[in-house]
Amino acid sequence: MRRACFKFSWVAAALLVPQLLIIFVFFYWPSAQALYWAFTLEQPWGGGNTWVGLDNFRAILTDPYYWGSVRVSVIYALATTALAMGMALTLAVFVDRQLAGYRTWRVAIIWPYAVAAPAVGLAFQFVFNPGAGIFSFINAVAPGWWDLSRNAWQAVVAIIVAGAWKQVAYSFVFFLAALQSIPRSLIEAAAMDGARPLRRMFDLQMPLLTPTVFFLLVINITDSFTDSFGIVDTLTGGGPYRATDLMVYRIYSEGFKGMNYSGAAAQSVILMLLVMALTFVQFRYVERRVHYT
Amino acid sequence: MTVKLATTAMALLLTVGAASAEKISFEYWYGLTGDLGKVVAETCTRFNASQDLYEAVCVGQDGYEKAVQNAIAAFRAQKHPTLLQSFDAGTADLMLSGEFYPVTKLMADTGVTIDWADYFPGIANYYSSKSGEFFSMPWNSSTPVYYFNKDHFAKAGLTEAPITWEGLEAAFAALKASGQACALAYAPSSWIDLEQFSMVHNVPVASNNNGYDGLDSELLFNTTLHVKHMENIQRWITEGTALLRTQGTGKTARDSFVEGECSVFFSSIADHNTIHKLTPAFGWDVQIIPTYEGTERTNSVVGGASLWVLSGKTDDEYKAAAAYLAFLASKPEQQFLLENSGYIPVTKSTYDALLAEGFYAKEPFINRDIAMKSLTWTEPTELTRGIRLGSFIQIRAEWVAEVEAALAGQKTMQEALDTAVARGNDQLKRFAQTYQGKSFP
C-alpha cells in the first residue's frame, strides 16, 4: 500500500493560511480595532486616546437624528429589496419563458451589476434632475412639484429606485438559474393538466424557488444596509435636511469627513449588530417557510 | 563613428542617471482637482525644471477632504507625504496633534529667507499661531464676493453694485420690477453666509474669540446678526426674489448665473476665472460681500488652502520641501497661479508689483483684486483673525442641514440655528474631551 508522502495537515494549513490571513487582516483586525475605538475618543493623527466607556453609544442613541437615520435605512433596505427582487423575478420569468430575443436581454440585464454604486448614483442624477432629467417632464406639467432639494420623500424614493436598479441584476441571475433548474417535465405536466402560465408560476415555480428567494432576501437586505453609500453620496449627499442620511453614509461622513473616528466606530458596531439581528430573524422565522428539495 | 556615438550616448545616460539618483525627492499631496489640479502639477514640473537638486513628486488626491483623509491614513502607517495641501476646516486636529513642522521654523532651520511681514495680515493671521509663527504656507487663497449681471442691472436702472444688504435688497426689488424673474441664485454656504458674514460684521461665530483662546468654546451664531440675515434670505426665497439653486435642485447657483436665469450669486473669487471660461452672453462684474447698514465693516478672511509640512521626515526631504515652498512664494510663481486660476496674491510686494505692471487693468483680470479690498478693509480684530474650532467640518454640515430644513419650511430659521448651535456644541465638547489638556498653539 502506498503511503502518502506528505503530511496532510501542513498542506491543509498552507492552503488555508492565505485566506485566513486575508480575513484576519481585512475583517477581524479592523473590527477589533473599531470595537476598541468605540469605547474611546481616538485622535485622528495618532497621539493616543481616552477611554470613555459607553459615552459614544450614549451620545448616538440619544440623538433623535440617529433614529431618523435608522428609520430611513430600514425603509430603504426593505423597499429596495422588495423592488429589486420583484423586478428581478418578473424579468427572470420572462427570460425563462424564452420570449423573442431572450438571449440578448439576459446579457443586458446582468450588466448593471458590474456598474459601481457611485456611477449608478451619477446616472440617476441625470434621471432625477428636476431641471434637466427625465423627471423634469413632471415639472413641465406641475412646476416645482419634483424637487429633491425640498421634498424628503422624493429624495428617499430616488435612492430606493437607484439602489433597486443596481440590485436587480444580481437577483436576476439567481432567479433565472433557479427557474432553469426546475425540471421541464414538471412544467409540461402542469401545462398538460391545463395550468396557465400564471397558475404554474404561483403553484409550481414559486414554491420551488423559495430557497433562492430566502437566500436573495438575506443577501439583498444585508447589501442595502452596507453597500448603499456610493448611491447616497453621489445622488443626494444625505440631504435634503438629513432625509437620506442612511446609517452607512453617516458613518462615512462622521468618520472620514468629520474625523470623528470613535463616533463612527460606535456606529459601525451598532450597524453590524443590527444587520446580524436582522439576519438572525430571517433565519429563525422566514426560513421555516422555505422548502428545500 | 557609430562606436563613438554609442559611447557618448552611454556616457550621457550615465551622467543623467547619476544626476537623477542624487536628486532629493519629496512627496506632495494636493487636493485641488480638474483644471486647478493641473495647475498644481504644473508648478511641480516648473520647480523640477528650475533646479537640479530636488525633485517634487506631486500626487493629486481628488479633493481637499480626501487629501486630509488619505494623509491621516498614511500618517498612521508612517507612509505620509512631506507636504500636504489642506483646507482650513480640516486642520484643527492636525494643529493639536503637533505632527507638523511650522513653516517659519522650517525655513529658519533650512536657511531659506522668507519675508513673513510681506504677507497680508488677513492671510498671515489665519495661518499662524498666537505668537505669529506660520503653521503652514499660504498658497491658493481666496475670499468671497458677489457676481452680478451688468446687463440686468442696467435694464433695472442700477448704476452701481451696492455694498450694503439694504442696498442689495433694493436692487433685488428694482430687478424684479424690470421684469427679471430671479434676482439671487442662493445656495446655503456656511463659509459665506456664516463665517465670512460674521467676519465682515465683526460678530463672533463662537466664544473664546472664535475658539482661539481655548478648547472650551461655544457657538454663538444663533444670537448674532447672522440670524436676521438668514431670516432675510429665507424671506427672499419665500417672496420669489431668490431661488434655491443647489446640486439637489438640478442647477447650481453658478450655472443659474451663467445662463442668465438669476442676476446675482455669491461665491469665492476663485470662480472669477471659471466664469470667464464659461463665457456668459452678458456683461458681468464682481463686488465685495455686503454688510448691513449701521454696522462697521471689518476685513473678510482668506479661504482656499495652505501647504502643511508633516512631521517624521528626513532633513533632506525638509530641505527639498522648503525649496519648493520658497519657489511657490516667489513673484513669478504667484503670478503663474493667478493667471491660471481665480486666486489672489498672498504677499503685498507681489500685489504691488502686479498693480504697477497693470496686471489688473487687463481682461480677464479686471476688478479681480476687489477681493483684496475686502480682505484688507481693516486690520484683523480679535474676531476677524479667523476661526479655530475643532470638528468644524461637522459643524458646517449641521449648519447646512438645519438651514435646508428651515428653507424647506420644516422649522423656523431661529429654531434651525438653535439646533445647529446645540449640536455643534456637542461636537465641540467631544473635541475638547479628545484633546484634553491641550490648546491651540
Radius of gyration of chain B: 24 Å
What is the makeup of the main sheet of chain A? 2 strands, antiparallel
Could you name the CATH homologous superfamily of chain A? Answer: MetI-like
The helix/strand class of chain B is alpha/beta
Give the total of domains of chain A.
Answer: 1
* Cα shape of chain A: globular
Instruction: Tell me the β content of chain A.
Output: under 5%
Percent of residues in beta strands of chain B: 5-15%
User: What separation lies between the terminal Cα atoms of chain A?
Assistant: 41 Å
- For this structure, the CATH topology of chain A is MetI-like fold
The number of distinct helices of chain A, counting runs of at least 4 residues, comes to 12
Quaternary state of the chains: heterodimer
CATH class of chain A: Mainly Alpha
Question: Compute the gyration radius of chain A: what is it?
Answer: 24 Å
Helix content of chain B: 40-55%
H-E string of chain A: HEEHHHHHHHHHHH
Mean pLDDT of chain A: 87
Task: Examine the secondary-structure arrangement and name the CATH architecture of chain A.
Answer: Orthogonal Bundle
Largest sheet of chain B: 5 strands, mixed
Element-level helix/strand string of chain B = HEHEHEHHHEEHHEHHHEHEHEEHHHHHH
Task: Give a brief outline of the structure.
The complex is a heterodimer of chains A (293) and B (441). Chain A is mainly α. Chain A has helices spanning 8-37, 55-61, 64-96, 102-110, 117-128, 136-141, 152-180, 184-192, 197-226, 229-235, 247-257, 261-286, and strands spanning 40-42, 49-51.
Structure description:
The complex is a heterodimer of chains A (293) and B (441). With 293 residues, chain A is an all-alpha fold. In chain A, 71% of the residues lie in helices and 2% in strands. In chain A, strands 1-2 form a two-stranded antiparallel sheet. In chain A, strand 1 and strand 2 form a beta hairpin. The longest helix of chain A has 33 residues. The radius of gyration of chain A is 24 Å and the shape is globular. Chain B is α/β, with parallel strands linked by helices and 441 residues long. Chain B contains 19 helices and ten strands. In chain B, the strands form two sheets. In chain B, strands 2-1-3-10-4 form a five-stranded mixed sheet. A five-stranded mixed sheet of chain B has the order 7-6-8-5-9. In chain B, helix 9 packs across helix 11 and helix 18 runs antiparallel to helix 19. The longest helix of chain B is centred in the last third of the chain and has 22 residues. The N and C termini of chain B lie far apart (67 Å). About 2% of the residues of chain B have low confidence. Classes of the chains: A mainly alpha (293), B alpha/beta (441). At the A-B interface, helix 11 of A face helix 3, helix 4, helix 18 and helix 19 of B.
